[in-house]
């Protein structure tokens, strides 16, 4: 808490006025981080009506989030506290909220049931999360842009197989 107060430019008592303990501070940081990736996913989906470009934008959003120098993604995806119910709920919200947005697009375009569309959406979100984290740990000779484009291509080839309905 001393280090955090120092980096924030406040005294430790001021920090404790806002956050009674480390857990509350962590939860606030986690919530902010979760909100950021969800908002980024929303912007990606709203950026175009072209679904191929939506897939690419959503993958890019996850890769940019995970590849950012802040390392905030570690709060969300690599926390030692994910067994804590409150932490688990926030972390799961990233998948649920992003998948819900994608489910709406899939349902609207394909006419699939909510259950089927949601399964596809969760799969796409999982692909983005897991592949971005894997790339961060071992990028090899791939830039963030190249990695996101490769995975977006794979995702598009799969989801494009579900034809639009009238």
Per-chain topology:
Elements: H1 2-8, H2 12-18, H3 22-46, H4 51-67, H5 73-77, H6 85-110, H7 114-137, H8 144-159
Largest sheet: none
Number of strands: 0
CATH class: Mainly Alpha
Structural class: mainly alpha
3D architecture notes:
- It is a single chain.
- The protein has a single domain (2-159), classed as Orthogonal Bundle (Tetracycline Repressor, domain 2).
- It has 8 helices and no strands.
- It has helices spanning 2-8, 12-18, 22-46, 51-67, 73-77, 85-110, 114-137, 144-159.
- It is elongated.
- The termini are far apart.
- The mean pLDDT is 86.
Write a brief structural summary.
The protein is an all-alpha fold. It is 77% helix and 0% strand.
Q: What attributes characterize this protein structure?
A:
elongated; Tetracycline Repressor, domain 2; 166 residues; mainly alpha
């Amino acid at each position: 808490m001393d280090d955090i107060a120092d980096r924030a430019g406040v005294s430790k008592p001021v920090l404790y006025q806002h956050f009674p303990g480390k857990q509350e501070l962590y939860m606030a940081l986690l919530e902010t981080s979760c909100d950021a990736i969800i908002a980024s996913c929303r912007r990606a989906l709203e950026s175009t009506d072209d679904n191929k470009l939506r897939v690419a934008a959503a993958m890019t959003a996850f890769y940019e989030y995970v590849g950012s120098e802040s390392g905030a993604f570690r709060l969300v995806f690599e926390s030692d506290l994910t067994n804590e119910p409150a932490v688990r709920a926030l972390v799961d919200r990233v998948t649920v909220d992003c998948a819900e947005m994608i489910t709406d697009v899939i349902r609207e375009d394909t006419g699939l049931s909510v259950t089927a569309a949601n399964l596809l959406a969760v799969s796409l979100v999982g692909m983005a999360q897991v592949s971005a984290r894997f790339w961060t740990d071992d990028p090899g000779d791939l830039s963030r842009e190249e990695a996101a484009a490769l995975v977006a291509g794979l995702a598009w080839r799969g989801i494009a197989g579900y034809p639009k309905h009238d």
